[in-house]
Design a protein that fits this description.
This protein is α+β, with helices and mostly antiparallel strands and 534 residues long. The protein has 3 domains: 78 residues, 2-Layer Sandwich (Alpha-Beta Plaits); 240 residues, FAD/NAD(P)-binding domain (3-Layer(bba) Sandwich), CATH 3.50.50; 194 residues, no CATH class. The chain is built from 13 helices and 23 strands. The radius of gyration is 24 Å and the shape is globular. Bound molecules: flavin-adenine dinucleotide.
Length: 534
């Protein structure tokens, strides 16, 4: 029989015999009764109270006796059943080449790429259109933006193959319970060149440099399976009749289309406006805005790993901090932590600017950063003729004010945390910050008072939780405005728009996902839903 054994603690330098020995202890059997261990999950436990850092593994292993010892009946040991086909797996295998219907996927971010891949391997020959350049072509555009302040509004940090996830931290955090789809996604990434750690780590990370080679290989697979990919192809309009999608307009040309996965991400505000004009159902959604905070990675490592800090086996440490609402001050939480990474500027519209964080696969840069966000909702911003677009206008205002406050040229507004708290602006920023095009700015000219007030009250006690991290070492960058979508494109339980049949909004832009993994699996789900109707 094959067993699944959880919570198998091993030293960081483990090998198969060590794993078998630890599993045998857990089960209460001789190591000789066990064979063929396979790690299916691995999480690091480097808490200072441990005698040494360990990995907690979940391991599959063959057990060569007919029955388990009584000591092995805890929930930590499961007998594995034969794998049955998941529903999504059987959908994937349905061949659709006979139908002659060609679905279109709009957007080549994680959601669109995975939707197109699913449709392609099912035989549906999808057309994938993307407004920006291919991954290879994006690099020079992004370098030009960061170095010279020249924005290509169609191909930039947020637009182009790989979507917003390409120049990102590339952490593949998955909070969803959809294990089948997550496993399929990780296996595909691995097949396209991601390190095998993505198959087992509880919090896998790939890094922007690795994504630049993985994404083109994924595109090649879509094409090899019968899909077509067109870059520099922007969806301008959709045409529907009697609540059914009939066609789309791409670069001025009408394309007949009754089934479309719309995976445009939440930066595509022009698409939201076009959908609103055409009466597609949208709903306002709460989101969050704030700042990005940068501190020395060595201090984060010491706070998290204690005396184990500096071990080359541990990698750069991460953190998650939250502060509850109190005394009229809103809640605040850290988001999208990028260990050993850098702070970057992003824009997809001329004269607007937002911040974010990214890292490379080694996460070896000297500073770590994370967003510190304050929740906002429709009651916080001015009304709009189309209520679902009020949040979009609110984001735009903060981004426009940030661009202006930093003097244009897509420089990033920044402030030492101590200056922000004391409401002063130093003429310079500390040497060695990760964002060379940052300039000192008063954030109260950019962010609303309720946000700056919350950040003033929340950040110092939150940093206190990271023992040894000093307020004086922290630098803030602003504004963080695009942590999640400000609206939902309302969907039926079958996954298409509630009033435009055949239009399948997917990923972060639809408002139903946030992050690379959840967007990717939402794209897969959209493709499966679409396939059911063909
Ligand atoms: C700098 C940065 C770092 C991040 N780091 C992480 C991280 O470490 N981990 C994580 O999980 N998440 C991270 N995120 C968030 C993550 O990237 C997004 O959640 C994810 O990319 C959303 O996927 P998506 O496919 O829904 O949308 P997107 O990735 O936004 O992709 C949408 C695509 O649609 C295209 N498009 C838009 N409009 C049109 C149109 N009209 N016609 C044709 N194409 C169009 C765009 O060009 C884009 O390529 C980061 C984001 C940024 C910006």
């Amino acid at each position: 029989m094959r067993l699944l054994v959880h919570q198998v603690n091993v030293p960081l330098t483990y090998d198969d015999p060590t794993i078998l020995q630890r599993v045998s202890r857990k089960i209460g059997c001789d190591p000789d009764c066990l064979a063929n261990p396979k790690i299916v999950r691995r999480s690091l436990d480097a808490r200072a109270r441990n005698p040494e850092p360990v990995y907690a593994l979940t391991v599959e292993v063959d057990f060569n006796l007919p029955t388990l010892p009584p000591s092995a009946t805890s929930p930590a040991v499961e007998i594995m059943t034969d794998p049955t086909e998941d529903e999504h797996l059987s959908t994937r295998l349905r061949s659709l080449s006979e139908t002659g219907v060609r679905p279109v996927v709009v957007g080549a971010g994680p959601a669109g790429l995975m939707a197109a891949y699913k449709l392609a391997i099912a035989g549906a020959r999808p057309l994938l259109i993307e407004r920006g350049d291919d991954a290879e072509g994006r690099g020079p555009k992004v370098a030009q933006f960061w170095n010279d302040g020249i924005l290509d509004p169609e191909s930039n940090v947020l637009y182009g193959e790989g979507g917003a996830g390409l120049f990102s931290d590339g952490k593949l955090t998955a909070r969803s319970k959809e294990r089948g789809r997550i496993r399929d996604f990780m296996q595909l990434l691995h097949a396209c060149g991601a390190h095998e750690n993505v198959l087992i780590d509880a919090e896998p990370h790939v890094g922007s440099d690795a994504l630049l080679t993985i994404v083109p290989r994924l595109r090649e697979r879509i094409i090899a399976a019968g899909g077509e990919v067109r870059f520099r192809s922007r969806l301008e309009a959709i045409i529907s009749e009697a609540g059914q999608l009939r066609a789309i307009v791409v670069n001025g040309q009408e394309i007949a289309c009754t089934h479309c996965v719309l995976a445009v991400g939440h930066s595509a505000r022009d698409v939201y406006e076009m959908l609103a004009e055409r009466g597609v159902a949208l709903q306002p959604k709460p989101f969050a805005v704030g700042v990005r905070l940068e501190i020395p990675q060595s201090a984060i490592d010491r706070a998290q790993y204690g005396r184990f800090a500096g071990s080359p086996l541990l990698g750069a440490a991460s953190f998650r901090l939250t502060r509850r609402e109190e005394d009229g001050v809103r809640s605040c939480y850290s988001f999208c932590m990028c260990p050993g990474g850098k702070v970057i500027s992003c824009s997809s519209e001329p004269g607007l600017l937002t911040t974010n964080g990214m890292s490379y696969s080694k996460r070896s840069l000297p500073l770590g950063n994370a967003a510190f966000l304050v929740p906002v909702g429709p009651s916080d911003y001015p009304e709009h003729a189309i209520p679902s677009l009020a949040g979009v206008e609110f984001q735009r205002k903060l981004e426009r004010d940030a661009f202006a406050a930093a003097g244009g040229g897509y420089k990033v507004p920044a402030a030492r945390l101590v200056d922000f708290l004391a409401k002063v602006i130093s003429p310079t920023l500390p040497e060695g910050g990760s964002c060379p095009y940052a300039v000192p700015v008063e954030f109260r000219n950019i962010l609303p008072e309720f946000v700056t007030h919350t950040l003033e009250r929340a950040i110092p006690p939150m940093l206190n939780e990271l023992y040894g991290v000093k307020v004086k070492d922290a630098v803030l960058y602003a504004p963080e405005t695009r942590s999640s979508s400000p609206l939902w494109i309302t969907r039926n339980p079958e996954g298409d728009s509630v009033n435009t049949r055949g239009l399948y909004p997917a990923g972060e832009g639809a408002g139903y996902a946030g992050g690379i993994v959840s967007s990717a699996i939402d794209g897969m789900r959209a493709a499966e839903n679409l396939l059911k109707t063909l």
